[in-house]
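User: quick one, fold this
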Amino acid sequence: MIRTAVVDDVYAVWDDRGLLGCWSMAGTPLEGLYPAEAPLVAEPAVADLDGDGANDVILATATRILAWRGDGSAVRGYPKPLFDLFPLADSTRVAGPVVVADSDGDGANEVIFATDGGHLFQLGPTGERLDGYPFRFGDRATAGLAVAPGDDPVGDRVLWLLSGGGYAEESMPARPVPGRLTAFRMAPVAALHTSEWQGPSGTADRRGPAGPATHLAAAAPVMAEAGNPVIYPNPLRSDDLTVRFFSSGGAAADFMILDLEGEVVMRQRIDVTAGTINEQIIRLPGLVSGLYVCRLRWDDTAGRQ
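Assistant:
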């Protein structure tokens, strides 16, 4: 099955083996930004999961939930293997669909999905399983999930849970189990919130993410990375190295790579946007395999970092 998604200005296509390809809206091929490495079991969800004001893409395979930023870097805490979340029967698989929405009213989105055993999961924006989950609302049937307005005038919302039924229990093989429709009340929308993926094709009118991606300021989950600059992957297996860090000032950062004799083998200036997580993919100049030291320096309101 072919599945597609538009992540801001990137068009992505997945086939039965995972990612087929990505292209810019101008038609320029982009090297595998959002790998799945397995068939997707649900429509890709496009929403701002980390609260940084840009849409991410959230994918579900039979055994993992993955989340990628628009530039192809992983959202903190993802991918998340299903069997790392809760002890389930070995035969249990993610069944989809995936909803990305703010269920508790704090402005940040959660990832909501089901299994083929009728379990409902909610993961926080950094991949942690929320307390009280999973709970079981169906059994051995196709599931459906969608967010819709509730009936409370203060603006609460409802997550509708559908279990398709149609299978037979061993005790009554001639009588199929009927389907079930359950309403799960969610909190009202926060004053400061960001884009969501509320159900099939995003919204009731099936036109992509619900609402604009909005930076959640200090409440943004991505801000948890503020004190933890990251340089990855390590070990490096290609020529692309990602540098991610927070700066409260706007002065450019200085990144360099040194060999074990202290010689600088590569140096690059990184432009900085103040007050947010800055991320730069650096194409390395074909370094010889070996051990190197990376050094990142920048000036912000707290001094040199």
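User: anything notable?
Assistant: Residues 161 and 182 are 5 Å apart (CA to CA).
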